[in-house]
Amino acid sequence: MKGLDLSMVGRDWVHVMNMIPSLIKLRLPLCGLNDIPTSLSHINFTSLRVLDLQNNFFGSEFPPWIANLSNLVSLELNGCDLHGSIPMAIAELHHLQVINLGTNYNLTADLSVLLEGSWMAIKIMDLSENRFHGEIPISIGNLTSLVELNLGYNSIKGRIPKTIGNLCGLRKLNLYANMIEQIPDSLETAGCILQTPFANLAFLLLGGNPIHGSMPAWFGQLKRLEWLDLQDCLMTGSILESLGRLPFLNMISLYRNSLNGTLPTTFGQLSKLRYLDISSNTLTGIVSESHFEKLFELKTLMLSSNSLIFNISPTWVPPFRLEFIDLGSCRLGPRFPSWLSKQNLTQHLDLSNAAISDTIPNWFWDIASHLSHLNLSNNYIHGQLPSQISFSGWATVDLSSNSIQGPFPLPMKVSQLNLSNNSLVGPIPENINHVMQIASLLLVSGNQIDGTIPSAIGEMMYLRVLDLSRNNLHGSIPPTLGGCTQMEALDLSGNHLSGPIPESIGLLTHLQTVHLNYNNLSEELPSSMKNLSRLETLDLGENKFSGRISTWIGESFLSLRILRLRSNTFTGEIPSQISNLTSLQVLDLANNHLTGPIPSSLGNLTAMRTHQNRNILLAYGIYYNERIYIITFIERLSVSMQDKMFEYNKTLSLMTSMDLSEKYRIL
Predict the structure, then answer these.
(1) pTM score
(2) Is 4 a residue whose pLDDT tops 60?
């Protein structure tokens, strides 16, 4: 039975089954069982050969009585929320061929002891995603019936013993995400007919381990290898050319190591290769057409964060149609790579920091209609963008830090758009809310945008980050902005905005960072701002705000890290309530018209008195993804030191500063 709801039967179901001595197979996966006894007074169902209880939620210790099922051939208890130690007697079940205890998360045993058992018939062993520890013993080489060994996501340490090569029939070896430090330079092959290591191995997953040293030569002898995963290790040396002569390879991941040298041209002969990720290493040299000669099946190409130089003919027609391309920080320019014109299945394209000094060709926008992710940032791209651009639904588009000219573009089907640090001119289109209605992030800082902020922006209900800083905008902040109720980050600094902050800002209760500095804003702060209880940064410096500094700043903004009100016309005393802001690291009230004593309670600002030794990137608006570049709003702040202003961003969390003077002071 599978999927039958037995959640109400309690633990009696085991006792009922135990009354059937002739029972051979018991399969109850995904049945909602939530209880299993840890002891039985006697075992009747000793004929049981198959026990499949996977994906029930027992939440108990591993039942020791299972080790007494002497005829058991297959045991599947994966995903059952079991915990505690595995009885060593389970290794002496002489008929056991399959054991799957994966994804219980809290099962434990010392592998150096557990794998010393006989395991006479074992073929498939899955102990992944648990808390198994210790080292893999030399005796692992005695388990010669093993076909699959999955020990990924545990706490195994030490080295892989040479004797593992005696597992002549092994097809899958998964040791991913442990603490293994060493791979043997050579393997024992005693008893293997062909006297070659792992003659049948198809899947080798060793990534996520602190493995030192270079690739052993025997990697290049795994003639039936299909998957090679060595990502997130500490491997050094060059990539083996012999890997390019393994005819069945369809996945290679060497991401984030310290590999050097060049990309072997032999990789161009891997006709079954579908996935190639060698990003985040220290590779150098030329990449030419020969590197891709027979990669007919390639779908994913990731070579970013190396120092590779592409030398590809503009007339080259690639043999593949890629879906995922990440070549960030490879040198592809100066011309825009014409071979991309044939990649009409691509969904993800990253050519950032690729030394491209060219206009974007017209044919590219036909490809863009399939893209859900485009990153062309940090190049020298110039020219205008088309008036109408469309991407695949909810796309992420980053064209920042180029030399793109012309009016403000309105790309369709885009959720995250970064056009910062270009040369865009003219106003923000009034119909932005209709064309970009799904936008959650809009970064257009550092351009020459003028005119007023259109009231229609307040109808962009998904907007979480709005950065229009360092432009030539004038007029007032539209009250309709209060309609962006999901807003987390708002930066309108460095413009020519005037008038008061609208009362409607109090509707933006998700706001965490507000930058309105370097404008001509005036009047008193609206009392509705006290509703912004999640604020971490409030920068209103270099404006014409007046009145007293409100006491509610110290009562409502208890998460505030940065309070910057410098160079305004605030009057009165510094409110003692500011001392409630125990997370405050930067307090800048300089160049106002404040009077009275400095409150002694400011000495209670805990974060200022604490040495900040852990750097945290202060970023807002978008969830973090390690492998895929995702646009976000990174906090920044100008801090005065010795009559000069310094801007901090990535190390801002380490800063502690207080300035209450007419001149500059820093602690």
Answers:
(1) 0.92
(2) no
